[in-house]
Amino acid sequence: MPASYAYLGPEGTFTEVALRTLPEAATRELNPYVSVQSALDAVRTGEAEAAFVPIENSVEGGITTTLDELVAGEPLMIYREVLLSITFALLVRPGTKLADIKTVSAHPAAQPQVRNWLRAHLPDALWESAASNADAARLVQEGRYDAAFAGEFAAARYGLEALETGIHDAENAQTRFVLVGRPARPAAPTGADKTSVVLWQRDDHPGALRDLLGEFASRGINLMLLQSRPTGAGIGNYCFCVDAEGHISDRRMAETLMGLRRVCLQVRFLGSYPRADITPGEARPTLPGTSDEEFMAAADWVARCQDGRF
Amino acid sequence: MPASYAYLGPEGTFTEVALRTLPEAATRELNPYVSVQSALDAVRTGEAEAAFVPIENSVEGGITTTLDELVAGEPLMIYREVLLSITFALLVRPGTKLADIKTVSAHPAAQPQVRNWLRAHLPDALWESAASNADAARLVQEGRYDAAFAGEFAAARYGLEALETGIHDAENAQTRFVLVGRPARPAAPTGADKTSVVLWQRDDHPGALRDLLGEFASRGINLMLLQSRPTGAGIGNYCFCVDAEGHISDRRMAETLMGLRRVCLQVRFLGSYPRADITPGEARPTLPGTSDEEFMAAADWVARCQDGRF
């Protein structure tokens, strides 16, 4: 297996910073790719062992390019997730003052996070979108624009300095990234895990989505993400990307997945992996009647009834 | 094991007629008991192999004495059910004419079924309740009352004649009887079976009963009877006697029972047995996603996901 990770490039973006927080990244070659699609394709073709891409953003929601790539094509599996707090620095060529800035640049995704700051401090600056925040920094270095919004870590790489740091419109703005590989046995549960699936409904009767969510609720499984994505079969046709609390080796999750498999047209398992937002000690207690022990006791009771021993 | 069946007596009632429709009754000694309770006690003490008692009546609903006996005490199990159409004959001493009848008698349960007929044909006759319809017939034989409502089959036994037959206020009036024994392995499924349970809720949050019914609905299990009975723990405290379509050896029923066992305070299994109302050929098709095959395929899929083979 190639010991390399593909990631959404270029170098010097939040994605690379997030990837480097993973211990396993230290022992791999890290290769930037120009798009989420090309990074995931590198995994599907075997060129890379895994790909590291953004999947959710606390300001904008699910990152649809990534979701759509996971929903379709050869099955992939999420191995890990990383949460990164996103705050921007305003990067300029050394010596530039705030009053000198006529043009600012960044990736379009940065805009909702710096909009208020811009209105307050640079109301007349012209916004120019770049392919990435790192690319915006490079264009500032080349003199094309006056300032770039990027991670503070990008300043050194492009010979810029941070005129301002900690810029973020939304408090606790975070981006969630995932390490995606080919299907394999999921890592053992840690006690604070999450399971991702894609669900296609069998039909569209009234209450169909409620019935589907009932499969989770009746086994005491809490949802963390429900994002609808068009199936491509016309207006009104959606599938659902779902993140749910728990691990496929939990009895309650296994039974939920079996129920979904029975009632849905199709279910795609995207993996069970450790949650980045909490540690096992912070996981909420399971609802009464939904622990592994209670599942096993109930199965044992039914077996006894089937045998006439009650 | 004693080869005798206890039944709710006396002889010559609808209960005895219903019991004699069971092939196995031909090889047993049939002993009448004075009450449902004493017949069931005969099973609990080992005096009788099984007891045959009425449990539901299409005019009046669940027969609470029987339900309460099954809910409490040593566990018992329902082996069989019998449905009997109930129509009454007006039994009189030979020679009696309609105009001669001043008093009529029957078990109180018969009254709602003959009320309209009485109003139309004997508006002035005085109603006298008897311990059973057979007892009413005996009292007519002894000259105590002028007429009794009972099964036509009781006429010969008491030297009476039927002045009128086929009396029934409600069309399709039926009584359901059950053969109850000690816990044992339920008979194999026939394809048209029913499963009876008693459910005690864990708590009384809003939607608690809906959640409980959702355990059946989400596995495509249809209910045939839902009768609440006081638990004896004060006003507002009820348990639920439930009859549901299917056999405990059906995957969907087994998973439903496991779910109920997990979410309920207590579940009492009362047996899986052939339905008397339909034959296997008339059983409704299972909902999509709830056949044994689909349960097994879903379990296999989850096992493959757990192994990384997807």
TrEMBL record, chains A, B:
Residues 197-274 form the ACT domain. It is an enzyme of class 4 (lyase). Pathway: Amino-acid biosynthesis; L-phenylalanine biosynthesis; phenylpyruvate from prephenate: step 1/1. Its EC number is 4.2.1.51. Keywords: Amino-acid biosynthesis, Aromatic amino acid biosynthesis, Lyase, Phenylalanine biosynthesis. Gene3D superfamilies: 3.30.70.260, Periplasmic binding protein-like II. Residues 4-182 form the Prephenate dehydratase domain. It catalyses: prephenate + H(+) = 3-phenylpyruvate + CO2 + H2O. InterPro entries: ACT-like_dom_sf (IPR045865), ACT_dom (IPR002912), Chor_mutase/pphenate_deHydtase (IPR008242), Preph_deHydtase (IPR001086), Preph_deHydtase_CS (IPR018528). It comes from the Bacteria. NCBIfam families: PRK11898.1. PANTHER family: PREPHENATE DEHYDRATASE P PROTEIN, PREPHENATE DEHYDRATASE-RELATED. This is Prephenate dehydratase. It comes from Streptomyces rameus.
